[in-house]
Every structure is written in structure tokens, then in C-alpha cells.
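Re: the 120-residue chain
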Amino acid sequence: MMWVKLDDDFFENPKTGSLSKGAKLLYLAGLTYCAKSLTDGKIDARGVRVVRALAEVGAKAVAELEASGRWEKNGSGYNVHDWLEYNPPAARVLAQRKAAKERMHRTRSGERSNEQAEEQ
């Protein structure tokens, strides 16, 4: 499971507070899509269709996010503005998941990590 960083000032921030309800919901759906899919903030054309369906909004909300600078046009899709400033890159998430899986495997097989061995 991945998490999305969301500013606690999201609804009062001038950049997002002035968006329509539909555009706000689409923005949030886009954030969760990027986190879940590990896209590094990229939403391709298929992803745009997916998040529009999730948020139940039309093209107007997409245009609103683009006009506000929250989504930046990238070919047939979009980049979420500043995604990598506030969220870890996919490569780091995958490396952390791999390391956690290996730790769990060692734990379940009775192996101890160097830290555990030094503590005893």
C-alpha cells in the first residue's frame, strides 16, 4: 500500500481552494492513482479516463486542473505538478518493498539481521 502526501491546507490554499468540487475530487483521485500505480506523477490518457470515472467528472474538471497548473500537459496525458517534491519516486518505493520482503523472509526463516545479532 502506498500513501499520498496531502497538505493540511489543501482546501484553503489559493491554488486548490478556488477549484470546483469536481476538480478537487479529480485532483485527489489523480494523486491516489499515481501513488497506487507508481507512475511518478504521470497520468497517461488511460489513467485520465480512469480517474475521471472514479471522480465522476467530465472534461471540464480536467481543463480546470490544467488551467490552474495542478496538472501539466504531457503528450496525451498529464504530470501532477511537483509530484516528486512531495512523494517518493517509484524506484525508491520498489526498493523499500523489496528490502521489506527480504527482511520478512529472513525473519520467517529464523535468520537474524546484523542489528538483531549485535543486540544479543
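The beta strands are 42-43, 71-74, 77-80.
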